[in-house]
Amino acid sequence: MSQLLHRFLGSGDALARLQEHAARLRRLQGALEAALPPYMAEQCQVANLKDGDLVITARNGATAVRLKQMLPSLLTQFAQAGHAFGNIRVKVGTPEQVEWRRPPPQRHISADAKAGLADFAASLPTDSPLRESLERLVRRGRE
């Protein structure tokens, strides 16, 4: 299946250029990860290479500042790895979107209600499922 996909991507001129550009970005990402300390490599990503400028996104502002301080040595390391370009631009990437969920409602039971439920549960037979549920409710209930 992957052979067919590679043949299709390489068939047209525009698709071939796109595939070549994506492969080059993957190689640059590998070179970036090798050039950065491990704690920074996981927070930085090659975004694009356009007009001789490499664009790198950082996960937050602090990482972007540290990356900008490392630019001269990064340019040297990229050149030694065989990737020569004029400039590196650093941008702060957008944070990952996390689906927001409403927190579960907190239900409170007053002391009087707990006492009433406990009395009612005590009046039920010992093997009653309702009694077990009421006792659990009384134990877990917040005042």
Automatic annotation (TrEMBL):
List the Pfam families hit by this protein, alphabetically: DciA (PF05258)
- Designated name of the protein: RNA-binding protein
Q: What lineage is this protein's organism placed in?
A: Bacteria, Pseudomonadati, Pseudomonadota, Betaproteobacteria, Rhodocyclales
